């Protein structure tokens, strides 16, 4: 009561006695128990990168086996296990979840939020992913799966592959699937509800658009594969015959379900990459992004069309011509919104003041590498051409141009661009450039020639080939390229280790960025922002810098630019 103080001679000291308050965790427990989107984001990035290295080592072993004709380095079984582990790891444990890692760290920062909408669910997503990876890799101690990343029926049936490897694969799909699904719902809720004041849909950073569409595609596609692998599980263990033709089931049902998920999965992997590129290009061209609305809209259109093309993976199955034509034309159609993006990116570079930072180099490397992958995709969408090329190395070349060109190069662009924000230190530009050139050259040496290997008729997923024509030479070149590529990746890892300790201190905004993550300190505090500015355009940081400059010039006395310096 206010009157009580009048009778007291000494002022009361407010006493707060807290009972049962736990000290904040420090050390490794602070990571295991965290629900902070930034820590979860870093755990995603680090653990998926570990899987990238595992998948990369598997790729190198595949390439070593193929470096010589009639090689006996690996047995056929081990070879099958390696390409299955490689493809599955790269897709389910590296590219898809690393995009969730970037999304986790940067979406809340870019929209001016303090965390994700459901922080505990977010932690659950991460631990489900880790569980999936552990279950899957545990299979190497008994019998790894041998059915390729597509696990086609009837090969995946217990008649042909009775070992538990396929079951480990099924559990990987389930666990990483639940992880991504929960994560996707979280991204959607965060982006829909937690944007800073003034950030309408039309002012949202393009990376957030990409993550939004990524989330929607995951929500639409994942239940289908989850159902498909559940049917496979019951076929294998509980006497059902969904995919067993001899009992009235249909192996083609698997292919339809798998690719109804599988093609959108491709866009799930590359759309966030497109988002990263759309953030980096304008910053290092010192120009606003060209065609913001067109890029955002084409992301949505690509996702929609991406749901209508799945059977272009099934051109060699018996289908009526009209069906083949439909899937050919729908696949062609995707080139239109993709072309819209390409032209807008090039127009962003056009007449810009380009700064060739490592992030920008990776972004430009992405542009033309992905373009080649897109063009070979159009070739493959012509079904008579596909009849010739399906299951050859031409397809392996195409898919790596898309996945390495589209996803991996943009992931590396993102690492170089955002490392200062996550750590407070710059990544070395010298080592970065070395890494970029090794990776780019290594990549094209490895995969360009695989188009020729495929055109010469070498099938994919075979552990040996005869010494005919130029096959041995071509394969040797491809293997050499893969080691150059691996060296490039290694240089970045070394760069990260050195820069974590010795990198130059970056400050909050080393690149003069456009988006809100650069508004806060590097690394950001637990609550991200003490206050969030009102958003007035797609480039809030430019607005803020302009405002600061205006205030400074208003305050400072007008100085004659020609006047000699006095001190
Ligand atoms: C690091 C460089 C890489 C090399 C040298 C490499 C090499 C290979 C090779 C030679 C094959 C064909 C195996 C065969 O058909 O017998 C293959 C398959 C595959 N790779 Fe890669 N790869 C690399 C990176 C990646 C990345 C980053 C991804 C995905 C994002 C990826 C996804 C796949 C997939 C999905 C397959 C098909 C697996 C299957 O047939 O089931 N690869 N890779
Ligand atoms: Cu496809």
From TrEMBL:
It holds the Pfam family COX1. Its EC number is 7.1.1.9. Signal peptide: none annotated. GO terms for molecular function: cytochrome-c oxidase activity; heme binding; metal ion binding. It is a multi-pass membrane protein. Residues 22-536 form the Cytochrome oxidase subunit I profile domain. This is Cytochrome c oxidase subunit 1.
């Amino acid at each position: 009561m206010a009157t009580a103080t009048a009778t007291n001679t000494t002022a009361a000291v407010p006493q707060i006695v807290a009972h049962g308050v736990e000290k904040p965790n420090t050390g490794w427990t602070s990571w295991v128990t965290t629900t902070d989107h930034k820590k979860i984001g870093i755990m995603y990035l680090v653990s998926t990168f570990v899987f990238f290295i595992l998948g990369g080592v598997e790729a190198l072993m595949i390439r070593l086996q193929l470096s010589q004709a009639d090689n006996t380095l690996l047995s056929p079984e081990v070879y099958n296990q390696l390409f299955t582990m490689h493809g599955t790891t790269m897709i389910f444990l590296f590219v898809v979840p690393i995009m969730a890692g970037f999304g986790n760290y940067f979406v809340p920062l870019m929209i001016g939020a303090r965390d994700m909408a459901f922080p505990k669910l977010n932690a659950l997503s991460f631990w489900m992913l880790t569980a999936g990876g552990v279950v899957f890799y545990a299979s190497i101690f008994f019998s790894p799966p041998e059915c390729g990343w597509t696990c086609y029926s009837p090969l995946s049936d217990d008649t042909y592959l009775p070992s538990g490897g396929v079951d480990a694969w099924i559990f990987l799909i389930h666990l990483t699937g639940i992880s991504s699904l929960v994560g996707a719902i979280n991204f959607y809720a965060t982006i829909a509800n937690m944007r800073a004041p003034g950030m309408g849909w039309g002012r949202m950073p393009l990376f957030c658009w990409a993550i939004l569409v990524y989330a929607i595609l995951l929500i639409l596609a994942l239940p289908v594969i989850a159902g498909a692998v559940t049917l496979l599980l019951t076929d294998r263990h509980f006497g059902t015959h969904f995919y067993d033709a001899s009992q009235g089931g249909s192996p083609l049902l698997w292919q339809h379900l798998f690719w109804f998920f599988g093609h959108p999965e491709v866009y799930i992997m590359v759309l966030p990459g497109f988002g990263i590129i759309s953030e980096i290009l304008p910053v290092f061209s010192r120009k606003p992004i060209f065609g913001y609305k067109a890029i955002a809209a084409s992301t949505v259109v690509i996702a929609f069309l991406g749901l209508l093309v799945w059977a272009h993976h099934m051109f060699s199955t018996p289908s009526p011509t009209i069906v083949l034509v439909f899937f050919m034309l729908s696949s062609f159609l995707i080139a239109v919104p993709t072309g819209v993006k390409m032209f807008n990116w090039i127009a962003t570079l056009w007449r810009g003041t380009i700064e060739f930072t490592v992030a920008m180099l990776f972004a430009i490397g992405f542009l033309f590498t992905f373009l080649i992958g897109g063009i070979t995709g159009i070739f493959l969408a012509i079904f008579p051409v596909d009849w010739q090329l399906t299951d050859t190395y031409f397809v392996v070349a195409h898919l790596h141009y898309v996945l390495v060109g589209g996803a991996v190069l943009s992931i590396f662009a993102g690492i170089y661009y955002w490392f200062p924000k996550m750590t407070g230190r710059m990544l070395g530009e010298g080592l970065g450039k070395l890494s970029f050139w090794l990776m780019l050259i290594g990549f094209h040496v490895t995969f360009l020639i695989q188009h020729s290997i495929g055109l010469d008729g070498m099938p994919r997923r075979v552990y040996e080939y005869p010494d005919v024509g130029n096959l041995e030479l071509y394969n040797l070149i491809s293997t050499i390229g893969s080691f150059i590529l691996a060296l490039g990746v290694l240089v970045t890892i070394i760069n990260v280790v050195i820069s974590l300790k010795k990198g130059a201190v970056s400050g909050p905004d080393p690149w003069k960025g456009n988006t809100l993550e650069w508004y806060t300190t590097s690394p950001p505090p637990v609550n991200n922002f003490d206050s969030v500015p009102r958003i007035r355009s797609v480039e809030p940081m430019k607005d803020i810098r302009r405002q600061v400059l205006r205030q400074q010039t208003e305050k400072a006395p007008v100085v004659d630019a020609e006047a000699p310096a006095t001190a």
